[in-house]
Amino acid sequence: MTLLLLLLLAGEDVGALRAQLASDDVAERHAAAAALGAAGEGARAALPDLIDRLGDGDGAVRIEAARALVLIGVGREEAKRLIGRLESVDADLGPLLAEAIAGTDAVEMLVECPSPYAALALGYMGRAGVRGLPALLSRAGQPYVDEAIRRLAPWGAPVVPELVDRLRIGEPPVRALAARVLGLVGPAAREAVPYLKEATAEGPDDLRAAARAALEKIASATAVSEHPLLRKPEECNAEAPARFRVLFETTKGGIEVEVVRAWAPHGADRFFNLVRVGFFRGARFFRVKENFIAQFGLHGDSRVGGLWRGREIPDDPPRQKNLRGTLSFAMAGPGTRTTQLFFNLKDNVGLDPQGFAPIGRVTKGIERLVALHSGYGEEPDQQSIQYSGNEYLDRNFPELDSIRDARILDE
User: Fold this and answer.
1) Other Cβ atoms within 10 Å of 291 Cβ, number
2) Which listed residue, of 36, 67, 123, 339, carries a Cα 20 to 30 Å from 406's Cα?
3) What integer is the mean pLDDT of 295-306?
4) Domain range 233-408, CATH architecture
């Protein structure tokens, strides 16, 4: 196996390993599957052969082939073949195949598949799999389904209307579960409040209890997100401390930033006020260009964003370079800075003469910053975000990473 792996990693043709997968010798088949998996995307030509090996007579070969599929990564066509096998695989293979499928966009096919491993794959998808959440409610109690529902519920904003439908017209157990899930969605489930209130006055005891608990959770989450000054930008004029630290809790993990007011006083003051009122909570990293920048700062609620639009701050002359890990305000020319900022993912000193003034730098979590989803590039339309908020982004760009919270650590 070692020799085969070395040859493969040195760039040898995978054809020999594909042929070896059909060997009569179990050890040879196992070694070939392991070597192909170690090669990652370079072994994509072997995906059909590895899928065939999922029916191998030896359990170890089957498992190694499944691991290889996870490591190489499958496409939609391979996912279709794997989903067709989910109803007949054993407990060793099922979770591995679910993990492989979770890297694709096969949500609709998974929803139609009754296998518990299909539910597991949807759960592994996270935000990308949330379209399958409403369908899972009627399968609650089955293996892996409850786990998948728990994983998907926090991302449920795009499917709130479907969840409301199940709350209103589903079977009693489904209605109660829909209420509990809506409670986990948070402020985005506010449109469900009238129907939850109705449910507190009718139906079985568990439905009424679930609806009351959901209303409490939504109210609590909404209160947290609504600082008294969030909708009063004209009153957000506090002067920032000389230095302060901010923790961004993102979908990739924590990113800590130190801001130095002397670098850019106007920018530091605006950023300080935005963080204090919770402006960035729920905001998406809507423009992430690999090895360039990660941009954010458009509010998820277009009504709130509209109140801050046009609230420009004076320019700051750049006193620091736009180096990797620094944080700067975005702008469209002189006098246009409002709420949008970007992290530099590399040294971007070419931005310095354009007037982009860093206000701080990442001190912890740089590896999480560079791991933000960058697959959409420039596709998200800023005007659409401004007028439709996260609803537009969740519908069209579900894999974007977001800021769960941002808070000042020194207060």
Assistant:
1) 10
2) 123
3) 93
4) Beta Barrel (2.40)
